[in-house]
Design brief:
Blueprint lengths: L9 E4 L4 H12 L4 E5 L2 H13 L4 E5 L5 H15 L4 E4 L14 H29 L2 E6 L14 H18 L5 E8 L2 E2 L8 H13 L9 E2 H12 L9 E4 L6
Parallel strand pairs: 1-2, 1-4, 2-3, 4-5, 5-6, 6-9, 7-8
Helix pairs in contact: 1-7, 3-4, 4-5
The structure holds NADPH dihydro-nicotinamide-adenine-dinucleotide phosphate.
The site of NADPH dihydro-nicotinamide-adenine-dinucleotide phosphate has 28 residues, from helix 1.
């Protein structure tokens, strides 16, 4: 990718680790100023310092996408540090290993809150401004489990399917405004998500998966692979709108 000629400030939700952090580094390297938001703000601050050390422009702030006041505070602080938002990467994610009927409904709702309403909260806060300026990229991250749910994944597949439907609705609603709503659908990716799971928790999950013919993935993507896809979406020249991109691991040769 070529460095972007314009200075386009980016907000990244879920920038403290994984795909969000890798995307921040990739975009910053191309000259995009990046605002890093997550609950673990110290991780965002460390990443911002690393980016600045490499000559990039970065800003870190606490963000909880389940809290409207927190989203507002993040966007306000980021815009006063970096300027009006041109790009949003909405990548907050929350994995759990429950059967639907056993999951505490409040926990189920919390997952929907992160994956669906958290994205809508960001859209509500930034898209009017993007429409007024007639340019913007709003990138949502779903999951291939949206189309292919696995047992014992709580509200994860349903909430990711919901964000996919919302993204398709937004393509239509934003047509002709200069704002591109896009959906990036990752396959299995080696990040922190689920990696700290104990054998006690993962054992029954794998047993249930095996019953339905699912195996653990032999190959995994890296966060940087997804960052490259997100950079492609965001840096697509005007006149082209990458609405949906799915990334899967390449099988070993
Ligand atoms: P990580 O666990 O590394 O990243 C998840 C990020 O979401 C963290 O930065 C976390 O930060 C943030 N987050 C969680 N809850 C909140 C919240 N309430 N408010 C703000 N930020 C929050 O996992 P990935 O990088 O893998 O996940 C990135 C996205 O990719 C997610 O949407 C995930 O669902 C999706 N995805 C991942 C796949 C995979 O195999 N890894 C496959 C398909 C999709 P903090 O805890 O500091 O708030």
């Amino acid at each position: 990718f070529e460095p972007h000629p314009d200075r386009r400030p980016v907000l990244i939700a879920g920038a403290s680790s994984g795909i969000g952090a890798a995307t921040a580094e990739a975009l910053a390297e191309l000259g995009y100023p990046v605002a890093l938001g997550a609950r673990r703000v110290e991780q965002c601050e460390a990443l911002a310092a690393k980016i600045a050390g490499n000559g990039g422009e970065a800003f870190a702030h606490h963000l909880d996408v389940t809290d409207t006041a927190s989203v507002d505070a993040f966007v306000t602080a980021a815009e006063s540090a970096l300027g009006a938002t041109e790009v949003v990467v909405s990548g907050a994610g929350d994995l759990s290993f429950s059967l639907v009927h056993e999951m505490d409904p409040d926990q189920f709702l919390r997952q929907v809150n992160v994956h669906l309403i958290g994205v809508q909260r960001l859209a509500h806060r930034v898209i009017a401004g993007m429409i007024a300026r007639q340019r913007g990229d709003f990138v949502m991250i779903s999951s291939d489990t949206a189309n292919n749910p696995r047992p014992r994944s709580g509200a994860y597949p349903a909430s990711k399917a919901a964000v996919e439907v919302m993204a398709r609705q937004m393509w239509m609603e934003l047509e002709g405004t200069g704002v591109r709503a896009s959906l990036v659908r990752p396959g299995p990716t080696m990040t922190g998500m689920g990696m700290d799971t104990t054998a006690e928790i993962i054992g029954p999950v794998l047993e249930d998966w095996a019953k339905w013919g699912f195996a653990r993935h032999p190959e995994m993507l890296r966060a940087a692979n997804l960052a490259a896809a997100i950079v492609a979406v965001v840096s697509a020249p005007r006149g082209a709108h990458i609405q949906l991109i799915e990334v899967q691991p390449e099988a070993r040769v």
